[in-house]
Amino acid sequence: MKFYKSVHAAAALSGIVAPKDLDTQSSSSVRNVAATLAHDTMAYYSGNTSAPNSIEVENVPKPYYWWVAGALWGAMLDYYHFTKDPSYNDVVLQALLAPTNIAPSFDYMPKEHAQEEGNDDLFFWGSAVMSAAERNFPQPKSNIPSWIDIAANVFNSLTSRWDSKNCNGGLLWQIYADNPNGMTYKNSISNGGLFQLAARLARATGNDTYLDWAQKVWDWSAEVGIIDPDSYHIYDGVDIKTSCKQVNKVSFTYTSGVFMYGAAVLANHTGKQEWADRADKLLDGAGWFFSTDSNSKNVMMEAACEPYDKCNYDMITFKGYLSRFMWQTSVMVPGMRDKIESLLIPSAKAAASVCTGGKDGHQCGMKWYGGSYDNKPGLGPQMCALETIQGLLIHESAPPLTGKDVKLVTDTNWKPIDTYAVDSATTSKRDVSSPTKKSAAARLGGEKKAALVLVGVVTALAAWGLA
């Protein structure tokens, strides 16, 4: 494995564009702000300068856990796909293929991270390589399988731990018995991750085994109540100690996004209206994560912890994943695009408006609805802003590939671009959906936000060690 130069020297920033100057109607403005945010996000990562085979090669700095690195590479794969800027591709490849990451079994179950890896962590690495497969991102190493085969390995690893002995199924949160938390808890992110990965593999390969598993996970999740049958909120989980009869009714942004995109993929793949309806209901269910206040209308928040300053280092990354999967849902189910943009465009503007901190003047804060930088910078807030803003370009990018179009590509001769080029007036306007009367009038939710936040939040924070 070769060494790479420092990531934050990888991209030329001579014409840097401050996030606060974002114009959501301009492709070049969105791309240029995304370039700034990508640079500042990757500035938190130095693992690429570590010694070969070091555990730090693919990891992010403490106190962030290893799973966040997997999520970061998914975000950076999106960055390249949306902007065509290859500045970070070599670093992404190095991380995804690092021996201390991918493991000898090519399933992201490395012994080096056994002490912290859970089933939910594994999903985020699997999601990243699934994105690589769906876009024919190059995989140059002949001794390592293709991205699609690696994603299948992750799927097989997850399904091997399906626990039919307790509560008629479901994945436990954790994998290893010596992990202090989660060996009796079946959480929505682990099961939602398996659901989404199965859906994406079904669409990419046409193999009905994956489709059957997606249906199986959905049915189990609905049966135990982590998918609310009325509100379509996604709750945190159930415990086998209570026979999965008591649902922990706290909700986090990212689980709604994970289930939503899985349902949208199945709608696209099967053509069945029931999956499109489920995706739409999940979007409605996610409505309570968006402010209804007149000064911050439709701006995303992590409602379970953000207003109380109780978010831990995992939770401050969650909003980015909801943004990621909402944007991707708008591709799989185009009829949902207007409703999604009515939420994510205000959120993108609000996120950009609070990226004014630090010595460089474009470090991002956590609370977008506040309207100003809150002095809470970090990798998590930077990733959240990046994912929300770069997604504005998704409809100018190719959709995920399927079938024979998914190929093993080995050529990594990236074509560099001028990161801060300004497009001509005829090509700069972003591809904007034409709103209909229905979408313009639509407003998600109507829930009593304050009451819902308090339901189950104390229990959930205790489970996360925050009470």
UniProtKB/TrEMBL annotation:
UniProtKB keywords: Glycoprotein, Glycosidase, Hydrolase, Membrane, Signal
GO molecular function terms listed in the Swiss-Prot or TrEMBL record: mannan endo-1,6-alpha-mannosidase activity
GO biological process: carbohydrate catabolic process; fungal-type cell wall biogenesis
Catalytic reaction equation(s): Random hydrolysis of (1->6)-alpha-D-mannosidic linkages in unbranched (1->6)-mannans
Subcellular locations according to the entry: Endomembrane system
Main location as per UniProt: membrane
GO cellular component: endomembrane system
Major enzyme class: hydrolase
Pfam families registered for this protein in UniProt: Glyco_hydro_76 (PF03663)
InterPro entries for this protein: 6-hairpin_glycosidase_sf (IPR008928), Glyco_hydro_76 (IPR005198), Mannan-1_6-alpha_mannosidase (IPR014480)
Keyword Cell membrane among UniProt keywords: no
EC identifiers of the protein: 3.2.1.101
Similarity comment text for this entry: Belongs to the glycosyl hydrolase 76 family.
Protein name per the record: Mannan endo-1,6-alpha-mannosidase
Species the sequence originates in: Tolypocladium ophioglossoides (strain CBS 100239)
